[in-house]
Amino acid sequence: MSTLVPPVPADAPRWPGLIPPVLIAIPVLLKFAGVPIANAWIIFALLFGLMLTGMPISISLGLTVLTYLFTMTSVPIESVALKLFTGIEKFEIMAIPFFILAGNFLTHGGVARRMINFASSMVGHWHGGLGLAGVMACALFAAVSGSSPATVVAIGSIILPAMVKQGFPARFGAGVITTSGALGILIPPSIVMVMYAVATNTSVGALFIAGVIPGLMLATMLGLTTWWRARKFNYPRQPRASWLERWRTFRASAWGLLLVIVVIGGIYTGIFTPTEAAAMSAVYAFFVAVFVYKDMSLAKVPRVLLDSANMSAMLLYIITNAVMFSYLMTSEQIPQELAAWMLDKGLGVVAFLLFVNIVLLLAGNVMEPSSIVLIMAPILFPVAMKLGIDPVHFGIMMVVNMEVGMCHPPVGLNLYVASGITKMGITELTIAVWPWLLTMLAFLVIVTYWPALSLWLPRTLGMMGS
Amino acid sequence: MKFLDALEEWIIATLMGAATLLIFIAVVHRYAAGLPIPVVQDWLLKIDLSWAQELCIYMFVWMAKFGAAYGVRTGIHVGVDVMINRLPPKTHKAYVLFGLLAGALFTSIVGTLGATFVWDIAHTDSVSPDLEVPKWIVYMCIPLGSYLMCFRFLQVAWAFWRTGELPHHDVAHVEGIEDAQDINPYALDDNLHPAPLSEGGRK
Question: The complex's ipTM?
């Protein structure tokens, strides 16, 4: 991979290197000097200090818990050790490896091509042409593959060269694909939603169903932005496809799309539990990839298994340590204190949600979605419950926040992947994504302050208690 | 060493595949046993698969522990590397080494805690609820996996100390893209992974 970021010069300032030790030292010294500061500050200073050193998030979570318990409390270490072992012994969590496996079977250029053909036959003749088709293809592919960066690569490397050939500016295509690629974590099945469900004991099924309407709405809004800008600058359009052509391309992509139906339908009708649905979708995806699409030979299967296991194990390891961390949070009563403080200050739902959005957007600057959800959900969720916010609505809001975080620097994974396939620098890409990023932020406001958008469908279908 | 690498990969890939098949069979069995086919139904009803869920959990816990060790070798574990990737090479190297050694420290502590825990329950007769296997066998994955992970951290740290190279994980690799470009976002300074030291700190 060619370099896109200039190397750090040998005489770059070294003082930022002092941040982690200083960050950890301040509250500790204050504590020993006898200043009454809440233990929460020590925990967070320790966590952020360790994280900033660049060690894996899972390790910094675990070390924070161990250090705190060893030095500050008399909680028996065995009880924590037990958490470490039993933390992931829940059948619901096992949906994550299955969904990753299912996604990996169908994360293939052939599948992407079928989705693009279908999308461009449906919407290619409108303003925006291939760009609009890109949004739709991203939404479809992301739902099936479950991985945002993989979506950007798969759809992007096929559609972007075609767009440039047709006369679209490179920036336009890059902006469309980078942002649309993030749709995957909102449209079910979504691994980030399973993480939220696990961290807060919310129903996975209700979350999946709740994601459908916001997911479609965000796709529509991104499409509208594309359409509007394409009309303004008069970008090329595709010839209108015949209905026969549309049917043909639909038939080709339907096998992949059926995966989403298997999962949502299976969970909704109660045929499967979410984890069983995930396992069924993995077997289904294997069947489609090897025997129907024939994109993958049987010899490639062990490699897919290994890659999926690798990714799942990384996430499960973060979960294990996050469970320990949330146990520490609970035993130190930190969410309760935060809730009491917010109520004390007279901050209502509106202010709290604003606060949550800002915190999550900031966290999105340095971490990837799964870690943010696992760390922040146990802290913010009890407060949200106290304020009477619906758990499912809160979850959808968090997920939309994560989507925004994937599309802006410094860690927006989609940006880095897009920069790899377009050969554009991060700064240029950041400018390119602006119209769509603003759309996403507007959508975030809508999702945050209009709970019915996420709650109407699961309520109507009777997936939720009230 | 080659053998250990291969064994590790073989274990986690097999567990992944086996767990998927297991749950698939359990679900199919549940619905097939409801079909009124003579003989077959009787035969299916005799098979009890209620332990499938528990076995699946144990398989994935084992996969998670060994997979996490494998993940150190492939460099998949994500972190917050915004700051250290902007530091001059020497300080950067010190932080990456610190991170790796902290990983080794944490996993060795967990491994030891796990070993004590396994030792303790090995002297009780506690068994798992459905499968009724002794619990200490189930929990063996914690000391084994954690010590293996500790070893991997030390291995990566040693290689980094000597060559300045770190393992890279290719997260967005997609098969079947024709004009194959070697896209490797984790080698792209995504700030979720430490950058290697070659070529002046960043690749």
Answer: 0.88
CA dist A393 and A209 (Å) reads 11
Helical H runs in A53-147? 57-72, 77-86, 95-106, 109-123, 129-145
Provide the shortest C-alpha distance from residue A340 to chain B (in Å): 31
Check A317 against B71: CB less than 8 A apart: yes
B18 to chain A: nearest residue by CA? A305
Q: What's the gap in Å between the CA of B39 and the closest CA on chain A?
A: 25
Measure CB to CB from residue A411 to each of B17, B24, B191 and give the nearest one.
B191
pLDDT tens, A359-414?
998 888 888 888 999 999 999 999 999 889 999 999 999 999 999 888 887 777 88
The helix (run of H) or strand (run of E) holding residue B163 is helix B141-163
pTM (2 d.p.)? 0.90
pLDDT in tens, A106-123: 988 889 999 999 999 999
Q: With beta carbons under 8 A apart, name residues in chain B contacting A271.
A: 31
Cα Rg of chain B, angstroms? 22
Q: Which residues contact B89 (CB under 8 A, 6 or more apart)?
A: A8, A10, B197, B200, B201
